[in-house]
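FORM 12-B: Structure-to-Sequence Request
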């Protein structure tokens, strides 16, 4: 039971990390596309 809850919380952390990484990547991509339009 303990191992299962630890595994579940680790999976939750991985999901949060993946979501934040994806958000940062899409933000950077939008920022670069806007910058290229400005220049």
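FORM 12-B RESPONSE
SEQUENCE OUT:
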């Amino acid at each position: 039971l303990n191992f299962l809850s630890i595994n579940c919380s680790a999976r939750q952390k991985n999901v949060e990390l993946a979501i934040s990484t994806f958000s940062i990547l899409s933000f950077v991509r939008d920022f670069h596309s806007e910058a290229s339009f400005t220049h």
